[in-house]
Specification:
The structure holds 2 protein chains of 2 kinds. Chain A has 3 helices and 31 strands. Chain A is mainly beta. A 5-stranded antiparallel β-sheet of chain A has the order 2-30-29-28-27, covered by helices on one side. A 5-stranded mixed β-sheet of chain A has the order 4-3-5-6-7, covered by helices on one side. The radius of gyration of chain A is 23 Å and the shape is globular. Chain B is of the alpha+beta class. The radius of gyration of chain B is 28 Å and the shape is elongated. In chain B, 31% of the residues lie in helices and 22% in strands. Chains A and B meet through strand 1, strand 7, helix 3 and strand 10 of A and strand 2, strand 3, strand 4, helix 3 and strand 7 of B. Strand 7 of chain A pairs parallel with strand 2 of chain B.
Chain lengths: 424, 167
């Protein structure tokens, strides 16, 4: 008996709108004077707020507000560098809206180094009026890049699952939003659970697990046109998808003989290769940034631990890589390949932890009790993860420089975050 | 701190929609870029509803749920008592087919819990097969931690959620 989900009956509370809260900044930030953008207030107010929040969230900056400055120049000619040097400001950012008509909106900005008393960047972002948020994120990323030397992630996206409980039924939604939690758009709605969303390396497709047929199955969906397909057509339970860095393969967990084993699906010819073969649980595969290794969680030692298989060596055996504690699971590699982050149990609490390969100890990164699903930003500097507070799931984040933020939902629960690649 | 403005970005969502022009502006370059925001289409899943068992069968299996310890899929002696009675019902009702749905508590990762729920259901299936039930009469699946019976965040709730439901 098939029941088609009737969308019109779903009340319009469907957005699990996220609200960004910055809880802690970095210890040694760049001090910048972010002067208000010049132009039509209605638009510049939005841009000023978004750029301020984006830069704040990176944890790399201390932003000096207009009322604390000795002068507020609107152009290069009006800058008196000494006014800024007295306040120990490192950089000055000034900007303005350039064209405002029905179809075009562009902004330009300039960055000045107080130390060298010179302009170090002039940039122009071309946008359209109904995408002011995106335009502002581009400006944030330009400023971030110029000052830190790292590519910015304000213009990237996050994917997550929301659950809204109404009476005895739950509505599950797979949602994509801007990195600051705003601009949510729904990719999938279902009355059955959705877990383990993952981006393709080009960020054009997502893979996820949906229980809509009654058992866990992996689906691949095109974001722009909504086309979706089952990754493997068979009757088995399949879960935990992870894309190879080149986008040609999808590793996943298939319950072929009733037990969780890891397989690699060739997306070009649909060939399936079995990677693990052990009577205990093997799942949660993830690829090293160079595609040469797969890390996974295995219960083969008696408790969940992380193992790694070298794909380039013939007949390579899994090597255990975590030894501290009796629960280490859901690992992902740092973007530079120097280490891993994972879920670690210490006494009764589940925390996100970091291990560098050249260290023989682990570094717990989070403080609460039930943290899970860590995902790393494409520039490798920010980790977003799910926490449970008062029985409800919400998203939290931290940067490797020490800043922390939260993204609680206004309604319902949010979990299973996954960070896109660069989109800019 | 100064670096070149001519950056090469490796991951474009849509490289063709992009425009990075470098033009000269007195002494330095101006980077120019166009905002791109791809479209998104929402999909609604058609949920397949599992056929309900007829009233009589349902009555027989009403309380057939067995429980497990944390991170364990071993059957307890209490579970075995429950399963014994299910086996005898199945032996006297040869047409009955059952589904075993494994579950886990919320602690630990979702995918590991999915696998753990499956192992629990497989343990129950193994018991049935050892006691002469044909494999074709038993379907196994897992919901992991996605379908808790009890919503609390303490051991009393967790222990209710580490279970296999027999339907």
């Amino acid at each position: 008996m098939k029941k088609i989900l009737i969308i019109f009956l779903v009340p319009q509370l469907i957005f699990a709108e996220l609200v960004l809260e910055i809880t802690q900044g970095s210890d040694d930030p760049f001090v910048i004077a972010l002067l208000d953008f010049d132009g039509q207030d209605e638009i510049t107010n939005q841009i000023n707020t978004i750029v301020n929040n984006d830069l704040n969230r990176t944890g790399e900056f201390k932003i000096i507000k207009k009322d604390k400055l000795l002068s507020s120049p609107k152009s290069e000619e009006e800058i008196n560098f000494n006014d800024f040097k007295l306040l120990n400001i490192d950089y000055i950012v000034i900007g303005s809206l350039e064209s405002e008509n029905e179809f075009n909106l562009s902004a330009s900005y300039q960055i000045f180094s107080v130390l060298s008393k010179k302009k170090i960047r002039t940039s122009k972002v071309l946008g359209i009026p109904n995408k002011i948020k995106q335009l502002a994120h581009y400006i944030s990323d330009g400023i971030y890049e110029e000052i830190t030397g790292l590519q910015g992630v304000a213009s990237t996206k996050i994917l997550y699952v929301s659950e809204l409980k109404e009476n005895n039924e739950s509505l599950y939604q797979l949602i994509v939003a801007d990195a600051d939690g705003v601009n949510e758009q729904i990719l999938l709605k279902s009355f059955e659970p959705i877990i383990s969303p993952a981006w393709s390396p080009d960020s054009k497709e997502v893979a996820y697990v949906s229980f809509e047929t009654g058992i866990a199955k992996v689906y691949i969906q095109n974001i722009a046109n909504g086309d979706r397909r089952v990754a493997i057509q068979n009757s088995k339970q399949i879960s935990s998808p992870a894309w190879s860095p080149n986008g040609n393969f999808l590793s996943l967990t298939m319950y072929q003989d009733g037990n969780a084993e890891i397989y690699i699906l060739n997306l070009k010819n649909n060939n399936l290769t079995r990677l693990t073969n052990h009577y205990s649980i093997d799942t949660e595969s993830s690829w090293s940034p160079d595609g040469s290794s797969i890390m996974f969680t295995s219960g083969r030692s008696g408790s969940p631990q992380l193992y790694e298989i070298n794909l380039r060596k013939f007949n390579s055996k899994p090597q255990r890589i975590t030894f501290e504690g009796n629960y280490n699971a859901k690992g992902s590699y740092l973007k530079n390949g120097d280490g891993i982050i994972f879920v670690h149990r210490s006494s009764d609490d589940f925390k996100i932890a970091l291990k560098y390969f050249n260290e023989n100890f682990i570094r717990p990164l989070t403080e609460s009790k039930l943290d899970e699903s860590p995902s790393i930003s494409p520039n490798g500097n920010v980790i977003i993860y799910a926490v449970t507070e008062n029985g409800e799931n919400l998203l939290s984040g931290l940067t490797l420089s020490g800043a922390r933020f939260r993204l609680p939902a206004k309604k319902g629960e949010v979990r299973e975050p996954a960070w896109s690649g660069f989109l800019r | 701190m100064k670096k070149t403005n001519n950056k090469s970005f490796q991951n474009f969502l849509c490289a063709s929609a992009f425009l990075i022009l470098l033009s000269s502006c007195s002494s330095m370059n101006v980077t120019e870029e166009r905002v791109y925001d791809g479209g998104i289409k929402t999909v609604e899943a058609s949920v397949v509803e599992v056929q309900d068992l007829d009233y009589e069968t349902k009555a027989i299996f009403a309380n057939a749920t067995v429980f497990f310890e944390f991170d364990s899929y071993n059957l307890t002696s209490k579970s075995i008592q429950t399963l014994k009675s299910v086996v005898s019902v199945m032996n006297s009702n040869i047409d009955i087919e059952i589904t075993l749905a494994g579950h886990a508590d919320e602690r630990g990762t979702r995918e590991y819990n999915l696998a753990l729920g499956q192992r629990r259901a497989e343990s129950v299936k193994d018991y049935f097969l050892l006691n002469g039930i044909m494999s074709s009469r038993v379907t196994v699946k897992s919901y992991g931690e996605e379908r808790p019976l009890s919503l609390g965040n303490d051991e009393a709730s967790y222990s209710k959620n580490r279970r296999v439901e027999i339907n």
